Prior knowledge:
The chain has one helix at residues 16-27; strands spanning 32-35, 50-53, 65-66. A 3-stranded mixed beta sheet has the order 1-2-3, with helices on one face. The chain has a single domain (9-66), classed as Trypsin Inhibitor V, subunit A (Trypsin Inhibitor V, Chain A). It contains 1 helix and 3 strands; from the N terminus they run H-E-E-E. Pfam families: potato_inhibit (PF00280). One of its GO terms (molecular function) is serine-type endopeptidase inhibitor activity. Keywords: Protease inhibitor, Serine protease inhibitor.
Amino acid sequence: MNTGPRQWPHLVGRSAQEAVQVIRRDTGLTNIQIMQPDMMGTMDYRTDRVRIQVDQYGRVSSPPTIG
């Protein structure tokens, strides 16, 4: 069971690629999705996935969260 962080509020404002590196280092997860503005995603909850919401400039716009 993963006991690392489940949320990364300190990544808001950083680049998506930097966020991916931090999340991989913290969790070992490889299923990390970068979600562009207005991009649709499924509503299922998955403990092996992190979604990173970014703005039009590729900066993290809300805290990435496992699920």
